[in-house]
Amino acid sequence: xxxxxxxxxxxxxxxxxxxxxxxxxxxxxxxxxxxxxxxxxxxxxxxxxxxxxxxxxxxxxxxxxxxxxxxxxxxxxxxxxxxxxxxxxxxxxxxxxxxxxxxxxxxxxxxxxxxxxxxxxxxxxxxxxxxxxxxxxxxxxxxxxxxxxxxxxxxxxxxxxxxxxxxxxxxxxxxxxxxxxxxxxxxxxxxxxxxxxxxxxxxxxxxxxxxxxxxxxxxxxxxxxxxxxxxxxxxxxxxxxxxxxxxxxxxxxxxxxxxxxxxxxxxxxxxxxxxxxxxxxxxxxxxxxxxxxxxxxxxxxxxxxxxxxxxxxxxxxxxxxxxxxxxxxxxxxxxxxxxxxxxxxxxxxxxxxxxxxxxxxxxxxxxxxxxxxxxxxxxxxxxxxxxxxxxxxxxxxxxxxxxx
Length: 404
Prior knowledge:
The chain has 18 helices and two strands. The chain has helices spanning 4-25, 29-39, 58-79, 82-87, 89-113, 118-129, 133-142, 151-178, 183-206, 208-214, 220-240, 245-256, 262-286, 297-321, 326-335, 341-352, 359-379, 381-392; strands spanning 46-47, 50-51. Strands 1-2 form a two-stranded antiparallel ribbon. A hairpin with a 2-residue loop joins β1 and β2 (50-51). α5 (89-113) packs antiparallel against α14 (297-321), α6 (118-129) runs antiparallel to α8 and α15 (326-335) crosses α18 (381-392). The relative contact order is 0.16.
């Protein structure tokens, strides 16, 4: 008998319980959603009609999670604007390059020192280099930092990472799955990804007057259909040309933020963002089997330490290159430290290529630790900044500890 609706109801109740617990403890909700997902899943029991394994509903939960990522990034784009992003174009390229170079280099060194073979080392570097768009978006929204000066750099690095990801996955797919990588194919993939993002931003700004007229719809039902249709169409098309669908959602949000209907769209999206976003983090937890993580504890902790150092230094250098204060630069490194969906994709690529089996549990534990630490560090960035400042004394008169 099909119990998908019952399982979805059970999942939502568990998610709500995790949210209530985090609220009582006044703690970031993301780790609680993930840990609740980990507590159940394939290794959990079935009690009477309640199947805590979520076998039948797993594909639907995964799909709802994908929708959640789209809403999170779309809403973040609405809170920002393409105008602010375009003004910071040069500094974003410099900052994104600094971030990728530092983290990729550290990832490669870690792989070699840990004794991984060449191909596995490339996968490890991919796992440790790319941050989680979904968690970054959730953190920025929860902490109400979309208006902060460093948010431009954070969003810019997120998009820069996506261009890098398109290139890196193209190379790895060629090397691991087919045994070769076409230099022309890699360049083409990168050019298409970057070209699509720039085109969407440039054209989007030009058609704002037209969008204002098109979206002047009295009916809330039809307005919702138009917005959702545009969001899913752009995000889905992005995926077909190797731009992450989440980045497509972010881009369309950035464009619509410039219209006179932004507040109406924001109110429409808000409940969907919260509901489906929570399902994403719970579903992510479902994919992690705690019983498989014990053998990779020290390896994962080593990678976490490297990532924390690399992110802090990269965020500081990227922020300072854009003229941001040390405190704002600290926020950059601590906000984008979380790893998530892209790291899991890298580990799955290694599995498809028949590489060492340890890659998947390593990636799962590494991602779990940073998914929990990331929001905490971002929230407490003021104290991290003050502690580091005691060592390096880079504070200025315009950057006192009480500043936002």
